[in-house]
Design brief:
heterodimer; A: about 260 residues; alpha+beta; ten-stranded antiparallel sheet; two-stranded antiparallel sheet; 4 helices; globular; B: about 250 residues; two-stranded antiparallel ribbon; 3 helices
Chain lengths: ~260, ~250
Amino acid sequence: MRNKFKSDPDSMTVVWPGFSETRRRMLGLPAALAAALILERAGIGIANDLPPGQTTTGNGADGDGRLDWTSFQKQCEPIAQELHKDSSPPGQEAYLHWIASMIVRARAGEIPRAKVGRFGKLEPAVRFGVSYRSKPFFIVEWQLEPGAFLPPHCHPNASVCTLGLEGEARIRNFEVVGQAPEFSSRKTFLVRETHNEIIAPGRINTLSSMRDNIHTFQAGRNGARGIDISTLHGPDVGFSFLEIARVSREAERSIFEAAWRDQPG
Amino acid sequence: MESDVAIEDLEIGESAQISPGVIVERRCFLKSVALAFGSLSIPGVASARVAGSDERLTYEEFLKEVAPIAKKLVSDISLAGQQRYLLTLASFAVRMADVPVPEMRDSGQGVGRGTFIGAIPGSDPFIVLHWKMEPGSIIRPHAHTYGNVMTLALEGEVRVENFEMVGARDFDAKGTFKARKTQSQVLTPGQVNLVNLESGYVHGFQAGTRSGRGLDITTRIKESRATTPYLKLSNKPVEIEPGIYEASWAT
């Protein structure tokens, strides 16, 4: 499939809708992370990705069972790395539920904040940025102004674990019915709405490369903030936004007409 | 072949599954991985079972693996604590192979006929119900007042919807109140739906053109009630975007 948003491997790569970074920087990460983990295991905190005033050191869960960020890293990542090796449908499910079971324990105030940038010219504004990079996942913080809408987009060969942190947003997930054309095509195809839920603080939504792979966000009246924990389970083949009809073609099965579209804004 | 092993005792050249799907590979970093897991406060990770990488858990293996962990996690009944508990159960359950169908009876929760339920042996702290729905059948939305639920689909396809009261929950509320649909999800084999007593604590099911079958793993964490409150909903939401319905409790 032709890659609509994937760029030159030696230069820029889109890692979230509209977000790019250099491949070189990504490749340099594992060694840095390993070093960081060793340092942290030795009790020496690092603060590269944290805003002023936040600490990465800590002794794990307090009486309330919540984790500071260092403890999340120590407890979540080694097992996530092992689970990530199985990219089968059950393997991805086990991986996602593991990640989810750990991130719900992290204290919201301890989750690294991103330097967010505005996505296109969407009104009301949608902002996001990478807040944490690790292996096998990276975390994107998203911020939606009241009523903001992030158009539907797919995550080929990837899984995403979304955690709500503030406010509320409606997340809708879709799956392609049958075969979709290449991203460059404007031909219509069918998608099925497979999941529709409210995300709010402490609530989780997941998608894998096999199910619910398209998602879209609509913020509530107070806006919303949250994170997407994204993981590749296969080659990076880019992604695309979609236009999905407002009215279903088959209400009973929640089938809609859709077409790939250019990046909004 | 399977046998219980301690991770720390593994030699380089051996492999072991230390958690569902978590395979310690035959590499030199094995000791490091073992040490890393050994430092984690995750019950059950300290022992491991030798298994193939794509091997599915039998139901008995699932119980054996997950029950000790569930016992450790069940005491935190906060929203996040239940999330962690249910998601941990889910991370094991999705590795399970199909489960034999027990003798079933009418669920007593259906709109008309075609919904069936049967108990299968669970393990402290949870019970396990096996359910089956004929095409087009409906299980009425009902509140879980004392037990959270991890639903795992095993066969076919069903749509599950979750609701909660707007504001503080009150299962004794008389008259009408506002209820919100928090989730609508198509469940196919290997997918899960969670009922957390702090959010989305009402669930109802509808089978499509195909039948559906799955498990409900229910864990009592509060005092039980004698009756199950069923949620009666207005035909259409009274506020479309937040998904709010007028509702009342029925028996």
